[in-house]
Design brief:
Layout: H1 2-25, H2 29-44, H3 49-58, H4 63-71, H5 77-91, H6 96-105, H7 110-119
Length: 122
């Protein structure tokens, strides 16, 4: 009886594990759309990783969908910081520290913010 039970459990695991793994490989409709929306945003605006996740959540995507979307696109976050710094300087004047602080506020890491500020000439 024990042997039959063990065989049944093993058979069940063999059948369900591959199916479960395959299900995890397939993105949901929400995840697919979050990827597309993230790419759309980056076509016309610079974002930090956390800023883009927050924007997708604001658009109605769940936290998991937003994170999936941002994690499944190719982005140079340093370049995004440089673009954001450039955008700010088109409309306002900033000290180096002020611009770094603004980029940090926008969700860039310190290294990304410093890269962005140096990329625009500071």
């Amino acid at each position: 009886m024990k042997r039959l039970l063990v065989i049944l459990i093993l058979a069940l695991l063999i059948i369900t594990v591959p199916l479960s793994a395959a299900a995890y490989d397939q993105p949901t409709m929400g995840e697919k759309n979050a990827v597309k929306k993230a790419m759309n945003y980056l076509d016309f605006m610079a974002f930090s990783k956390t800023g883009l996740i927050k924007q997708l959540e604001y658009e109605g995507f769940t936290k998991n969908e937003a994170e999936y979307g941002v994690n499944h696109i190719e982005v140079d976050w340093n370049e995004q910081a440089a673009k954001k710094a450039e955008n700010y300087l088109e409309f306002m004047s900033f000290s180096k520290k002020g611009l770094i602080d603004q980029l940090l506020y926008d969700g860039f890491t310190r290294a990304q913010a410093e890269y962005g500020v140096e990329a625009v000439g500071y």
